[in-house]
């Protein structure tokens, strides 16, 4: 993973000259470190994370130590690849973690938000029926904090392991003139592959289709500006345990629960239906909530009618609603409310798909139906 701090072998050297007593003293020679950028610290960080990256590599990744970019074969087995993809199409997505990073800094805990970063990208890829292939990260910091950065990349590597993609490389930008001390940001970039026929034929939701909801692991990575406002407004203690929320974890640890990665389950599900088109639509539930994201897969001729009582709302949402005095419609618009991903399936296959997803480790609930309408998501209590 290269850094933006320059060539590791190029370092500034101080020079000294002999002066007579009457010669004005020369000003000190400035170095990059004087300006706030420590090349050597950046190099040590890169060395520390190479093992983390390599653990995510499979046979498709080509060795390129010291290179300026990562190399990835579309498949290491040409016959296998031709069987899976006749006309492969690359799919790409990018995202960040948002102000959940502020919470990580407040808790001095950085080993979870890397998984959030991967999840936000690959969960979007799989909506397009793509298999995640590789991932790149971008870390922007005011200065190198070795352990913090290693923990961040540990989380990214763990997310890639779960998603089944390779952490191919990244960039660590040391920007003391842009980010004040204590602040940082991160962004992710994922690339996947899908068969041309599946990418262009379009999945069309029809009346009678069943909406399956896959449980979220909590808040995921959306709405944290409101979450942090609730904590401040209600004077909640991130390091305290609130039994009505979780008797075994502090509030901060609950709020840092990483986003669930649905890629393994969805990829395996779709591989099992190479001919039959049993899935008519999918949605990753992020900012905008269930309605805002599920509407993106509806056409003007149908509505999705969801049953609020069909799934349990995790305690974290009830907790936030209570302490922030947040109204129901606002909760629905900002948070996933316990459903992180939706799969819309043909009614004859609904039970079979639900069973397969459950066997793959998902908590699946039949949360609604598709009917004729105007492209809206409606809730019934």
- Shape-level CATH architecture of the largest domain: Alpha-Beta Complex
The secondary-structure element order is: HEEHEHHEHEEHEHHHEHEHHEHEE
- Average per-residue pLDDT, rounded, comes to 87
Largest sheet: 6 strands, mixed
Number of domains: 2
CATH superfamily heading of the largest domain: PurM-like C-terminal domain
Helix-and-strand structural type: alpha+beta
CATH topology of the largest domain: Phosphoribosyl-aminoimidazole Synthetase, Chain A, domain 2
The total strand number stands at: 12
Beta-strand content: 15-25%
CATH class of the largest domain: Alpha Beta
Can you describe this structure?
This protein is an alpha+beta fold. It folds into 2 domains: 37-201, PurM-like, N-terminal domain (60s Ribosomal Protein L30, Chain: A, 2-Layer Sandwich); 210-380, Phosphoribosyl-aminoimidazole Synthetase, Chain A, domain 2, CATH 3.90.650.10. The protein is 33% helix and 22% strand. The strands form 3 sheets. A 6-stranded mixed sheet has the order 8-10-7-11-9-12. Strand 1 (61-62) and strand 2 (71-72) form a beta hairpin. Helix 4 (113-127) runs parallel beside helix 5. The protein is globular, with a radius of gyration of 24 Å. Residues 1-20 have low confidence and may be disordered.
């Amino acid at each position: 993973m290269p850094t933006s701090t320059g060539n590791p072998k190029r370092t500034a050297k101080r020079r000294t000259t002999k002066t007579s007593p009457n010669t004005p003293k020369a000003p000190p020679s400035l170095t990059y470190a004087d300006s706030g950028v420590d090349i050597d610290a950046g190099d040590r960080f890169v060395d520390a994370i190479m093992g983390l990256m390599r653990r995510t590599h499979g046979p498709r990744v080509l060795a390129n130590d010291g290179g300026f970019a990562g190399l990835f074969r579309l498949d290491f087995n040409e016959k296998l690849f031709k069987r899976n993809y006749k006309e492969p199409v690359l799919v790409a997505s990018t995202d960040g973690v948002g102000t959940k990073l502020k919470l990580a800094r407040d808790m001095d805990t950085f080993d979870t938000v890397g998984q959030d970063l991967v999840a936000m990208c690959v969960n979007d890829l799989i909506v397009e029926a793509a298999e995640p292939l590789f991932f790149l990260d971008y870390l922007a910091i005011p200065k190198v904090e070795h352990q913090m950065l290693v923990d961040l990349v540990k989380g990214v590597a763990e997310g890639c392991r779960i998603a089944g993609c390779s952490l191919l490389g990244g960039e660590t930008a040391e920007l003391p003139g842009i980010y004040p001390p204590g602040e940082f940001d991160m962004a992710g970039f994922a690339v996947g592959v899908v068969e041309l026929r599946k990418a262009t034929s379009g999945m069309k939701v029809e009346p009678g289709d069943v909406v399956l909801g896959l449980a979220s692991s909590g808040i995921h990575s959306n709405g944290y500006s409101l979450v942090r406002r609730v904590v401040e407004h209600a004077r909640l203690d991130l390091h305290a345990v609130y039994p009505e929320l979780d008797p075994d974890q502090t509030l901060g640890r609950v709020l840092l629960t990483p986003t669930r990665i649905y890629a393994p389950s969805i990829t395996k599900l779709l591989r099992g239906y190479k001919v039959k088109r049993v899935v008519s639509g999918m949605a990753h539930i992020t900012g905008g909530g269930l309605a805002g994201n599920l509407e993106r897969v509806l056409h003007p001729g149908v509505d999705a009618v969801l049953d609020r009582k069909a799934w349990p709302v995790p305690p974290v949402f009830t907790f936030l609603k209570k302490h922030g005095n947040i109204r129901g419609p606002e909760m629905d618009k900002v948070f996933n409310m316990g459903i992180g991903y939706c799969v819309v399936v043909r009614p004859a296959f609904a039970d079979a798909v639900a069973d397969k997803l459950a066997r793959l480790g998902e908590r699946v609930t039949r949360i609604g139906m598709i009917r004729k309408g105007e492209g809206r998501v409606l809730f019934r209590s």
